[in-house]
Amino acid sequence: MMDKWTFGLTMLVVGMGGTIVTLILFSFIMSALKKIFPYKKEE
């Protein structure tokens, strides 16, 4: 059984890691969408 400090630290690392991974994933998705649908300026 982990004590509360170890559990808290684990949750902190997992939470921050998950957030960063999600942001990187969204960044890749947006880059892919820009390649698929390039921006065309209105004439």
Topology readout:
Elements: H1 4-36
Label this structure with key terms.
mainly alpha; 43 residues; 1 helix; rod-shaped
Structure report:
The chain is 77% helix and 0% strand. With 43 residues, it is an all-alpha fold. The radius of gyration is 19 Å and the shape is rod-shaped. The mean pLDDT is 92.
Could you give the count of β-strands? Answer: 0
Strand content: under 5%
Count of discrete alpha- or pi-helical segments spanning 4 or more residues:
1
Nearest-angstrom radius of gyration?
19 Å
The rough form would be described as rod-shaped
Mean pLDDT: 92
Q: Fraction of residues in helices?
A: over 70%
List unreliable stretches of 5+ residues. Answer: none
What class would the helix/strand composition place it in? mainly alpha
Order of helices and strands: H
Rounded to the nearest angstrom, the distance between the terminal CA atoms is 66 Å
What oligomeric assembly is this protein in?
single chain
Main sheet record: none
Short précis:
The protein has one helix at 4-36. It is an all-alpha fold and 43 residues long.
